[in-house]
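input
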Amino acid sequence: VGRGKECPVCGCRRRKFLPYGYVEQRENALCPNCLALERHRLLWLWLIRESDLGRGAVALPEMLHIAPEVALMNRLRKMYAPSPERYVTADLESPLADMHFDIQQIPLGEASQEVVICNHILEHVEDDRLAMRELYRVMKPGGWGIVLVPEDREREQTFEDDSITDPKERTRLFGQYDHRRVYGRDYDERLREAGFEVERSDFARRLTEWEKRLYAPGEDDLVIVHKPMPESSDDDQTPTNE
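output
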């Protein structure tokens, strides 16, 4: 076993990671042990270094993890073992998930989750704006989430065309035959339309050169969403006697 690469999710060390890709193979993409890809390794590093999960919070936040990536789910379930009810996984069909639903109609109460993780799902959804509004609805004010999609930052506008039905042509245009759109630079604005404040983090590029070589986390931005706290008005404040 070599020491050229290390997966921060599972600790696996190898001379290199496995190649992986739907259309084109990427070198050093897939951890052979936990199956984490670049974005999973990047997200895990961010979670343990920059988020409430790694900052020694008094209590772990209530988290909804939609279409949970197995590598991340396994680590998060261990982390939440003392309070498993605070970590809920959901998917349309996967038997590994706690709940099963369509993200366009989430059967959870309004403002019920402190954290939502939802990665590489919205490109599959018929009405992504409705799904974004649902994510916003179930998030508590002051809550945050990670909502990643495949992005083409060269595009100004998101491209979608359901009239194209040939699987090969859809793969060519959208990256996968089952993707409904390819997101452009307007992705952040779509999230803002749903109500979110959007933070685009260059965390990957802030890692040291040694960390980039060791973890192979890719160079993608992390898209972090926040649900703002309601603004208090003068009417909400209790008067004080002077």
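quick obs: The CA atoms of residues 154 and 211 lie 27 Å apart.
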